[in-house]
């Protein structure tokens, strides 16, 4: 109602103004034309402004979409990285050992020596991406040389079936060579064999069996000699007693590192005949006390090894007693042992050894060991010096 009254009043006033002789008609037309032009210009500007605002809004939406996509990409990438890290942690196990040693003593010639060295540095890598296959690699720095000590693949699931197949570079299951000492037992010096080959392991109810074949040392005029061997073992536990025993056979004990090393130094390109090897070992645990015994021997003589004017048939044995306890919540081990060899002068091994060691885990994963051994050389008639040697060694070992 009020809107209609105002409109009628405005029209009446305008009519009275025109009838009263207002501005000329031409002037009124020009004003109307100018007003129309300004209105059209205002409408155009408003349209352009609206168009620009729409464009700006579109640009803002696009920028926000890009930013959101980048954030999602970064988040996804982080998740993928975490997944990858999780997979590495799930499938790969990394381990290692660092051993630093300092030694002082006197050798068979009566010369004193003192030495400090990085004795060993090892990195082990175990990978298992399925239940039926796993891989193992051990990289070792020892004697100023970096080597791939082990690298092999294992096929089989020990929890589902009692058999597994190993292929690659490994230590064949000849002998046990268990010890609580820093020095390798003399049995290892004669019997340990590392080679590229394949092995089959069987185990059931404490009984174990292993058969293997590997690339061995060449016989004279025979290329690509293959070595073979087997091991039988048995383990029994009835608290607090545990027993582990085994017997081993190999077609050529000349493939051991100790004998091969000697032949390499002598420049031998092969051996006249393969010589079989036999080993027996036992470990008995009764509470904190462990007794270890082992015997290794060649089953025939080597024409390439001399002893007392004839061919040598080397053999070695080792006996060891170990006591484990704790001092101030620190795991501590005391060990004492006697070892010996026969017909092993050419290999540079002593005839007898008395040895003792004490170890303590001073920090988590960190062990300090003090070891002393006394060696008696072969007599002069057997190609030795008839003298003795004494060595005191301290080792700091870190494992992870």
From TrEMBL:
Coiled coil: 25-66
Region forming the signal peptide: 1-27
SUPFAM superfamilies reported for this sequence: Porins (SSF56935)
Keyword set, alphabetical order: Coiled coil, Signal
InterPro entries with a match to the protein in the record: Porin_dom_sf
Protein name: LbtU family siderophore porin
Taxonomic lineage: Bacteria, Pseudomonadati, Thermodesulfobacteriota, Desulfobulbia, Desulfobulbales
